[in-house]
Amino acid sequence: MMLCVPESLETSRLILRQFRESDWQDLHLYYSSETATQFTVGRAFSEGETWRTLCSMVGHWQFRGYGPYAIEHKETGKVLGTAGFWYPNDWPEPEIKWALAPEYWGQGYASEAARGVQQAGRECMPDMRLISFIHSENHASIQLAKAIGAVFEKEVNFRGGLWHIYRHPS
């Protein structure tokens, strides 16, 4: 299947683009936070682990033809986190993911980025039924999924916890 997923997207305040090696330092604000990572990777990462995770997101684009974007703030040029398409080999289905460093929470950046990714998915992958795969206790992400129109579908056991599948509108 040939996909037309753009290498970058633009919203009113953000540029969603492919990662650069230099992005790991900004991205580490997310991955080094125990609070931010408690429902995703489950713990704070070292700088080396953040760098390797960034490399895995770049590699995802190579293997799948789509992947996560760096969320760059237009005015500051800072990378706030990541949002995009994600489908690791142990995931139930392809998803729209988002993750921001805590200092950027509550400002609408995650929903703005996720809406941009949804739109790209509808245009470029219309046959792919996208989900968001969210830990059952991650209330902020559940609230965001609902706010952008995703609907709870089911609960599944995954990596020792309960996770929810939220289906995005086609």
Automatic annotation (TrEMBL):
SUPFAM superfamilies: Acyl-CoA N-acyltransferases (Nat)
GO molecular function: acyltransferase activity, transferring groups other than amino-acyl groups
Pfam family membership, one: Acetyltransf_3
Domain N-acetyltransferase: 14-170
Highest taxon of the lineage: Bacteria
Family annotation (PANTHER family): GNAT FAMILY, PUTATIVE (AFU_ORTHOLOGUE AFUA_3G00765)-RELATED-RELATED, N-ACETYLTRANSFERASE DOMAIN-CONTAINING PROTEIN
Name the UniProt record assigns to this protein: GNAT family N-acetyltransferase
Organism listed in the record: Pontibacterium sinense
